[in-house]
């Protein structure tokens, strides 16, 4: 008997009809002889509606109370899902994050899981019941308060439960068929990836792929949890995210592709601090000031200093929403930093090419630069990891860059991918 | 420093504007130097909306899951109320029934409070915070599950907290100005009662007065909790429900009125089992059968048996909703019970006159019967307690009966009462 953890997002349980459809799938998995644990998000727009209510009551809601408020969302979806399954004749019990033993830090809105003690979930399984667990939420032993895990929290709940229970697989249901070589809305010839290593998935998620949340992928990799990303609208196999330590699910002999996928990100801006004195410690000063704004710096590029002036340019990318704060903070320190100019550019896009085969394959970056050059696409910034190359281009050239690279690295499929509405979150 | 428990029902927190109004009142009570604990119901129609959702998912929702679902309602209202108060600069913390120590039996949907351990509420007060507690909900130690208290549950939560914390008063906020001598929609000259003893309030609530729930009044009487029923729309004093052991709040010398109030009930039906053999044990047989249907029998009347037939009629009243079940159950046993006829009458109303002064005052029933006789109102059933006389009349004569008795017992006010929309629940 296998133990399967299934995660359903808000769009999969948006209304009574969707809940019944999801319940049916869960019951089928149980009837096939598996033990089933389900992590579920709040219904459709519930979270946004609760946030609107909070905003109507007070301008800056207290984080503790906001968590108390938002966790009502999963309480509703999980109870409805459990009663629907029970109505189909299969025993089911719902558990809040606290009841399911999701022990977290006390940071409201972005709590981290510190321990998982799913004793009641295990008991429910032992009694033959399906356990329905509220995603996104936990409980802090220190503050004795209800917490939430922040964005992508329900994926993380599912993965953490799978790890703690020693599940055979954690199925992440979404509204797309799996992980694609790139966004099918940009490249209709994008192919569904049958299997991808956790480290490649991590690079893709970090570079902007939206289907799986970075944190959940990290958790899965750290605990060796196999993920299966698949559509809640079909019975087709999706994408297996496997632990490279345990090898490819189809056997060791499968050769790793040089490039597995291409991720894109349009929600960043580039800041260029121009004419910075090329003296030790200047870069540190700049990024200390940026760090104080809590902006999340992604790529950093420093040009070679011009010999005649002994000054250099430092460019970096940050999320669009942090732009104002970062620019204000740097302007306020212009005299200390002694820079000559400050540029802010929100018309950029990032394209990241990821593949574990890059490690053993030479010439990938050359191939990438040539493909973009031949398509007349200028590269403004470059950053690389062992298995990833990211480039920054003009925003309006992003789609073209992705198409060119998708073809250049032989990722194009013969058929066009089915694109569902929604975002998969 | 006084400790005040305040209860706000769903209509008082129906939207963001109402929540802000309620928050303002709570903050004023705190700023006046009191410790404040608040019990709050779910917003407006939330509970009904959740019930509709459940019904759309499955025909007979599992009680455990239904409780899990419904308790999301107070979680939303209490979190919004707490964050609104915090936004006004006063510390506030919300607590679920479980966090507030509302320990109940495990009966889902109608759990009874078995213990109240409000340690966290007390801590919050000691830190100078206002504690906002979810009404209607609790936690069973036996099943480790979330429970709900059933109808009127939020009143009961407030009273139980007041008892456990030794509060000076438990204020029940509603959309009417207090307890009236009778329903002002029937008798515009109804007077607001300044003070009423708990035993009188209990009789009125049991006889159909809707402002306070019977169970909360019972709990308050048993634990000596003083209630103050007042409007959330005005600052006027409402009605004090006092412990008769401790005496009238205005001093012992106040003479108890003979009649304090008149309650009405239109949601009952009368069943008459005709021609029952007048033999020992027949009535017991009948009511054993009725008890098996779980119908709540209210009044019972047995006529003297006719000497020639040695048969008698037994009439009783039951809630309208139980009618079908009771009639079917009796018909099924017609041969065993040997009755001659079975009548069902849903066009009846009950009028109950309540007053602690009845104990020491003679002639109250004579006065009542005469007043109704002179108004041409026939009495079909009578039942009495030490401080109450209830009569059953035709439903279409109920309003007239109430007006006649209100005048006969000198309850009429010189001015007309203000009637708000809504029901006060």
Automatic annotation (TrEMBL), chains A, B:
Catalytic activity as recorded in UniProt: L-aspartate + ATP = 4-phospho-L-aspartate + ADP
Keywords: Amino-acid biosynthesis, ATP-binding, Diaminopimelate biosynthesis, Kinase, Lysine biosynthesis, Nucleotide-binding, Transferase
Superkingdom in the source lineage: Bacteria
A Pfam family reported for this protein in Swiss-Prot or TrEMBL: ACT_9
GO molecular function, a single term: aspartate kinase activity
Gene3D superfamilies per record: Acetylglutamate kinase-like, VC0802-like
The enzyme's E.C. designation: 2.7.2.4
Residues of the ACT domain: 271-347, 353-425
SUPFAM superfamilies the record matches: ACT-like, Carbamate kinase-like
Pathway: Amino-acid biosynthesis; L-threonine biosynthesis; L-threonine from L-aspartate: step 1/5; Amino-acid biosynthesis; L-methionine biosynthesis via de novo pathway; L-homoserine from L-aspartate: step 1/3; Amino-acid biosynthesis; L-lysine biosynthesis via DAP pathway; (S)-tetrahydrodipicolinate from L-aspartate: step 1/4
Cited InterPro entries: AceGlu_kinase-like_sf, ACT-like_dom_sf, ACT_Aspartokinase, ACT_dom, AKii-LysC-BS, Asp/Glu/Uridylate_kinase, Asp_kin_monofn, Asp_kinase
Function noted in UniProt: Catalyzes the phosphorylation of the beta-carboxyl group of aspartic acid with ATP to yield 4-phospho-L-aspartate, which is involved in the branched biosynthetic pathway leading to the biosynthesis of amino acids lysine, threonine, isoleucine and methionine.
Entry's family note: Belongs to the aspartokinase family.
Protein name as catalogued: Aspartokinase
Species this chain originates from: Leucobacter muris
Lineage: Bacteria, Bacillati, Actinomycetota, Actinomycetes, Micrococcales
């Amino acid at each position: 008997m296998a133990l399967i953890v299934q995660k359903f997002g808000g769009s999969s349980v948006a209304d009574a009809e969707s809940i019944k459809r999801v319940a049916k799938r869960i019951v089928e998995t149980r009837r096939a002889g598996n033990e089933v644990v389900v992590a579920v998000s709040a219904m459709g727009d519930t979270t946004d509606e609760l946030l609107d209510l909070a905003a109507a009551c007070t301008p800056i809601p207290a984080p503790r109370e906001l968590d108390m408020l938002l966790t009502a969302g999963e309480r509703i979806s999980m109870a409805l899902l459990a009663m629907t399954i029970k109505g189909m004749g299969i025993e089911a019990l719902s558990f809040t994050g606290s009841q399911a033993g999701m022990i977290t830090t006390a940071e409201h809105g972005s709590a981290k899981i510190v321990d998982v003690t799913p004793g009641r979930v295990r008991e429910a399984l032992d009694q033959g019941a399906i356990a329905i667990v509220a995603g996104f939420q936990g409980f802090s032993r220190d503050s004795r308060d209800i917490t939430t895990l922040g964005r992508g929290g329900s994926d993380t709940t599912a993965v953490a439960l799978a790890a703690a229970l020693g599940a055979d697989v954690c199925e992440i249901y979404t509204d797309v068929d799996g992980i694609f070589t790139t966004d099918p809305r940009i490249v209709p010839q994008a192919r569904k990836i049958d299997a991808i290593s956790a480290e490649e998935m991590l690079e893709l998620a970090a570079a902007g792929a939206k289907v799986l949340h970075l944190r959940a992928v990290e958790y899965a990799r750290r605990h060796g949890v196999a993920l299966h990303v698949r559509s809640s609208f079909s019975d087709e196999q999706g994408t297996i995210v496997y632990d490279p330590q345990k090898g490819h699910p189809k056997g060791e002999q499968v050769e790793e592709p040089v490039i597995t996928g291409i991720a894109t990100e349009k929600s960043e801006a580039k800041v260029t601090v121009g004419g910075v004195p090329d003296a030790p410690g200047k870069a540190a000063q700049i990024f200390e000031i940026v760090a104080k704004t809590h902006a999340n710096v992604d790529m950093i590029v420093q040009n070679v200093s011009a010999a005649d002036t002994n000054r250099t340019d430092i460019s970096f990318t940050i999320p669009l929403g942090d732009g104002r704060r970062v620019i204000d903070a740097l302007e306020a320190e212009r005299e200390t930093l002694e820079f000559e100019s400050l540029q802010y550019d929100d018309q950029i896009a990032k394209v990241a090419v990821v593949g574990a085969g890059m490690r053993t394959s030479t010439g990938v970056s050359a191939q990438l630069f040539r493909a973009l050059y031949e398509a007349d696409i200028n590269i403004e910034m470059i950053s690389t990891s062992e298995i990833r190359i990211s480039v920054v281009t003009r925003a309006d050239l992003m789609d073209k860059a992705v198409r060119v690279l998708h073809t250049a690295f032989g990722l194009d499929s013969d058929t066009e991918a089915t694109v569902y509405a929604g975002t998969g979150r």
